[in-house]
């Protein structure tokens, strides 16, 4: 049983497989020619493999940056990292995680079918992380068996349609259409950044409008600007940590400045690859998804991982990362002054979440929106994990926790519901939420139909 569940986890957490299945089914439902189906399915899968591989390259290049930052500036505390905390949790909660994930994806489709929240969440590894956190919180409170799986799957299905909906008004600003949703569990931070942009961005130019002298026009190239920025950042932290530390612990004896330069350039290379992968996926999945939308879940849209927005504003990506990281540094000192658990800025979450927040803020508020929105995102993903730690049981004392805003919000809400209402209260509350969503959707549909009739 455990082996089968392990295989199930491996299968459904792989985004390229999920996307391939979606494209295949969508084109089959549209009765496309066999050769078109094979070509589109493979290209979409390859595109997601490119995105995943690019994310791995970026994460690997950022890892030594984080270590040099901690050592060079003498900082200790909890480091938010989804992969690390899930690796610890999956040993004891693997079976519950697999079942919650599988049935949660089914719940996602059912809820999208019968409500106005038409998002089909396709980011498999992020779904796995949320399923794992839900399994941990519900299990720690004593819930088990069928109730654990049912309640966990219902919670997962709800968040898989709600959080992309929160971001959708801003996604339409970014993509200029309504065909793709955000499928990454830091949606509250992204939506907050987009909202901040609407408040502070009047007359602020886009991050993509760079007025630079002709002699510096090469900076308009995102590859060049990203490479230069990351080179400066890496060299600063390398000097702060010292040649002895870097060459002994990180570079394998290679000169510490050369090592840092190569890591910075790997980061830039990963970013270029992400852009290419995104184009491949969007070109195939959006047309194919029409088949799913027409036959199974009318008017639905795919919710895809956060790098899907990077090509729309490459400069905002870099600005968002830097400003979010600065927000994390500021939060670290504030947490220390307040006597709370110190959350060390995790470079990977601040890149992916901060960069995405930058794109959202830029879409509604230009440069000011990108900078302030991503800075606030950095504060959000620093403070929220502190509130999450107490509801994770023994996992909360580990030297890591979940990093993105939605994890903390869902975890804190589930933990508090458990505390005040008990397991049955949580289950009943989630059922009630789904019923409210259905009724709200029916009433909204009737109002829209009445308005059309009057016109």
Structural description of this entry:
The radius of gyration is 22 Å and the shape is globular. The longest helix is centred in the last third of the chain and has 50 residues. With 455 residues, it is mainly α. The protein has 13 helices and 5 strands. It starts with a helix and ends with a helix. The mean pLDDT is 84. Strands 2-4-3 form a 3-stranded parallel β-sheet, with helices on both faces.
SSE diagram, text form:
Blueprint: H1 2-12, H2 15-29, H3 34-72, E1 79-80, H4 82-114, E2 119-121, H5 124-140, H6 145-175, E3 181-182, H7 187-200, H8 222-241, H9 243-249, H10 256-295, E4 301-304, H11 314-338, H12 347-388, E5 400-401, H13 405-454
Parallel strand pairs: 1-5, 2-4, 3-4
Helix pairs in contact: 1-4, 2-3, 2-10, 3-8, 3-10, 4-5, 4-6, 5-6, 5-13, 6-7, 6-12, 6-13, 7-12, 8-10, 11-12, 12-13
Please tell me the overall pLDDT: 84
Largest sheet, in brief, is: 3 strands, parallel
Q: Structural class of the helix and strand makeup?
A: mainly alpha
The span between the termini is 58 Å
Helix proportion: over 70%
Query: Helices and strands, in N-to-C order?
Result: HHHEHEHHEHHHHEHHEH
Shape, per Cα inertia axes: globular
Task: Give the neighbour order of strands across the main sheet.
Answer: 2-4-3
Based on CA atoms alone, the radius of gyration comes out at 22 Å
In the predicted model, the low-confidence regions spanning at least 5 consecutive residues are none
Number of strands: 5
Strand proportion, as a percent range, falls in under 5%
The number of helices is 13
């Amino acid at each position: 049983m455990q082996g089968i569940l392990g295989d199930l986890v491996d299968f459904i957490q792989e985004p390229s497989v999920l996307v391939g299945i979606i494209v295949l089914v969508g084109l089959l439902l549209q009765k496309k020619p066999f050769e078109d189906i094979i070509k589109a399915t493979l290209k979409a899968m390859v595109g997601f493999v490119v995105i995943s591989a690019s994310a791995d390259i970026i994460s690997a290049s950022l890892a030594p940056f984080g270590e040099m930052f901690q050592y060079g500036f003498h900082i200790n505390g909890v480091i938010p990292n989804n992969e690390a905390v899930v690796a610890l949790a999956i040993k004891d909660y693997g079976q519950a995680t697999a079942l919650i994930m599988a049935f949660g994806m089914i719940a996602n489709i059912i809820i999208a079918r019968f409500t106005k929240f038409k998002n089909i969440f396709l980011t498999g590894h992020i779904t796995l992380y949320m399923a794992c956190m839900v399994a941990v919180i519900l299990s720690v409170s004593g819930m088990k068996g069928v109730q654990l799986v049912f309640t966990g799957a219902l919670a997962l299905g709800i968040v898989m349609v709600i959080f992309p909906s929160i971001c959708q008004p801003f996604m339409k600003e970014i993509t200029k259409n309504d065909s793709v949703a955000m499928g990454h569990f830091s949606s509250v931070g992204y939506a907050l950044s987009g909202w901040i942009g609407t408040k502070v961005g009047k007359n602020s130019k886009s991050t993509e409008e760079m007025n630079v002298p002709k002699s510096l026009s090469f900076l308009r190239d995102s590859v060049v600007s990203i490479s230069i920025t990351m080179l400066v950042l890496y060299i600063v932290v390398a000097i702060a940590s010292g040649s002895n530390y870097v060459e002994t612990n990180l570079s394998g004896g290679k000169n510490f400045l050369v090592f840092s330069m190569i890591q910075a350039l790997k980061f830039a290379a990963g970013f270029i690859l992400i852009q290419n992968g995104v184009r491949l996926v969007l070109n195939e999945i959006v047309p194919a998804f029409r088949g799913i939308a027409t036959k199974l879940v009318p008017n639905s849209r795919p919710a895809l991982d956060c790098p899907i927005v990077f090509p729309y504003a490459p400069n905002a990506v870099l600005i968002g990362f830097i400003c979010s990281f600065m927000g994390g540094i500021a939060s670290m000192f504030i947490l220390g002054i307040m006597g709370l658990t110190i959350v060390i800025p995790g470079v990977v979450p601040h890149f992916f979440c901060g960069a995405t927040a930058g794109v959202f803020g830029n879409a509604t508020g230009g440069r000011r929106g990108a900078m302030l929105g991503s800075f606030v995102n950095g504060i959000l993903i620093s403070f929220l994990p502190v509130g999450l730690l107490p509801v994770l049981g023994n996992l909360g004392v580990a030297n890591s926790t979940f990093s993105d805003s939605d994890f903390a919000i869902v975890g804190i809400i589930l933990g508090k519901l458990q505390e005040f209402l008990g397991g049955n209260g949580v289950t009943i509350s989630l059922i009630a939420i789904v019923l409210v969503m259905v009724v709200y959707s029916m009433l909204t549909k009737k109002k829209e139909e009445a308005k059309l009739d009057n016109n």
